[in-house]
Specification:
Blueprint (H helix, E strand, L loop, with lengths): L3 E7 L6 H15 L3 E8 L5 H10 L4 E6 L5 H11 L4 E4 L11 H9 L4 E5 L9 E2 L2 H17 L12 E4 H10 L7 H11 L4 E5 L2 E2 L8 H20 L6
Parallel strand pairs: 1-2, 1-4, 2-3, 5-8, 6-9
Antiparallel strand pairs: 4-7, 5-7
Helix pairs in contact: 3-6, 5-8, 6-7
Length: about 240
């Protein structure tokens, strides 16, 4: 059983994925921990699976989980988490926008007693550097205000794709998750709080990487709809054990 599992969802990521895989593998190899890297190919139509398989040939512990058709990032992460064996489970984006070295900040939160530690681009911390596009930052902050008012007060950034879980809470939370798209972050954090898990948020360094799969005009309304669905579903006990 490895110490660490990294789950990377990937949809048409043949260009951005190689650098991310290399940095993650190099960092974990130097850490002294045993680990696995599970890349979940979410119905890609390019050479994403070939990229993963070629990298895995010379890098033990890396493997692809692939299916068709595309199901959404939430579904991809649920698939990966439920197959992960590590005592700690990190979810990480394929674009490498959150440098893998930032996981040390998340691990410190786990060591201090948290069940889940989420990386944040919005939590105030002058020692951290965040390079984000202005319009995406504005839309993200607006979305977060809605999320805080309805479901998750006190969290600055639910959508950062860099989150660390203890194994048991991760399995419990993701087994109950239903949102397949980009609103999954809100859902899993809401489930976590509802079930009494300790969630901490820590500021991290982050930089924008071109080629985002999020379409602001198309996906933002879908995410808002997911938030309202989560809120209504919770009233009917959807997420309770």
């Amino acid at each position: 059983m490895p110490d660490f599992s990294v789950i990377i969802p990937a949809y048409n990521e043949e260009q951005r994925l190689p650098a991310t895989l290399a940095s993650v593998y190099d960092y974990l190899s130097r850490s002294g921990k045993s680990f696995e890297v599970l890349v979940v190919d979410d119905g890609s139509r390019d050479r994403t699976v070939d990229v993963i398989d070629n990298f895995a040939k010379d890098h033990p512990g890396v493997r692809a989980i692939s299916y068709q058709p595309n199901q959404g990032k939430g579904h991809a992460l649920k698939t990966g988490v439920m197959k992960a064996d590590g005592e700690l489970i990190l979810i990480d984006d394929a674009d490498g926008s959150s440098p893998i070295e930032e996981v040390a900040r998340l691990e410190a939160g786990i060591a201090s007693g948290a069940d889940i530690v989420i990386g944040s681009r919005a939590k105030p911390d002058p020692s951290r550097r965040v390079e984000a596009l202005v319009h995406r930052k504005f839309i993200g902050n607006t979305f977060n205000l809605i999320v805080q008012s309805l479901l998750l007060p006190g969290l600055y950034d639910t959508q950062c794709g860099f989150k660390l879980f203890k194994k048991q809470p991760a399995k419990d939370i993701f087994s109950a998750s239903e949102v397949r798209g980009y609103g999954f972050d809100v859902e899993i954090l809401f489930i976590a709080r509802l079930r009494g898990y300790k969630v901490e948020e820590t500021a991290i360094n982050w930089h924008n990487v071109t080629g985002s799969k999020v379409n602001v005009l198309v996906d933002s309304p879908k995410m808002l709809w997911d938030v309202f669905r989560i809120a209504v579903g919770s009233l009917f006990g959807r997420y309770r054990k």
